[in-house]
Design brief:
This protein has 2 domains: 88 residues, Beta Barrel (Elongation Factor Tu (Ef-tu), domain 3), CATH 2.40.30.60; 73 residues, SH3 type barrels (Roll), CATH 2.30.30. A 6-stranded antiparallel barrel has the order 1-2-5-4-3-6. It has 2 helices and 12 strands; from the N terminus they run βββββαβββββββα. The chain is mainly beta. The longest helix has 6 residues. Strand 7 and strand 8 form a beta hairpin.
C-alpha cells in the first residue's frame, strides 16, 4: 500500500493510558465515520505499516482513542506518537455530485464561463487561508480559489469543473 492509494486520516498526538492506548487527532469533518475501524496504516520512517485495532472510540469529537494489537506498554505507545495515520481511498464515503475530494479532481479540465478552457488541474494548494485549484495551461500555472461562489458545476462523468471567475483573474497569469 502506498500513500498515493491512501488518504491522510490524522496524527497520533498522545498517549491516553498506561496500557498502550493512543489518541489520534482526526483530519475530517465526520469523525464518527471512523469510529469502528479494524486497521489503519501508520507511516513509520516513510513506510506504511498496517496496525490492527483491538478497540476504538471517539474522544472529545475530533480525537479517536485507539488500542492497537501488540501495543501493550507506554514505550510501545511512545514510539508511535507524532506518526501520521492513513486509510485506503476505498474507505472514503461517496460524496454528492457537486462535492469532491481533492485527490479526485487531479486531471480534471477547468472551463470558465467567460474565458473558456483554462487548463488541467495538477493539484490543490490547501496551505493558504483558502484552497486553490492549481491549473496547468500550456506550462503556465494558474491559481483559482476553490470558492463555492466561483464553482458553477462539477461534472464527474466528463471530468470537468465549470467555474465563473471574476473578470481578469485568469488573464493576470497570462500577461507577460
Amino acid at each position: 500500500m502506498t500513500k498515493e492509494e491512501c488518504f491522510f486520516l490524522g496524527k497520533i498526538v498522545k498517549k491516553y493510558s498506561f496500557k498502550g492506548e493512543l489518541l489520534i487527532k482526526l483530519d475530517t469533518d465526520e469523525p464518527d465515520l471512523y469510529e469502528n475501524l479494524d486497521s489503519i496504516f501508520i507511516d513509520l520512517r516513510g513506510n506504511l505499516i498496517p496496525f490492527f485495532l483491538e478497540s476504538s472510540q471517539l474522544h472529545k469529537s475530533e480525537l479517536l482513542r485507539v488500542k492497537f494489537e501488540d501495543v501493550e506498554t507506554e514505550a510501545d505507545a511512545d514510539a508511535l506518537i507524532k506518526s501520521d495515520c492513513y486509510l485506503p481511498l476505498s474507505f472514503l464515503p461517496e460524496l454528492e455530485d457537486d462535492k469532491f475530494y481533492f485527490h479526485e479532481i487531479i486531471g480534471y479540465k477547468v472551463e470558465d464561463k467567460n474565458f473558456g478552457s483554462v487548463g488541467i488541474i495538477t493539484g490543490v494548494n490547501d496551505t493558504t487561508a483558502q484552497s486553490l485549484f492549481e491549473i496547468d495551461r500550456d506550462g503556465v500555472q494558474i491559481l483559482i480559489p476553490m470558492n463555492d461562489a466561483f464553482i458553477s458545476k462539477v461534472d464527474k462523468k466528463n471530468k470537468t469543473i465549470f467555474v465563473d471567475t471574476p473578470e481578469g483573474l485568469i488573464d493576470l497569469y497570462l500577461e507577460e
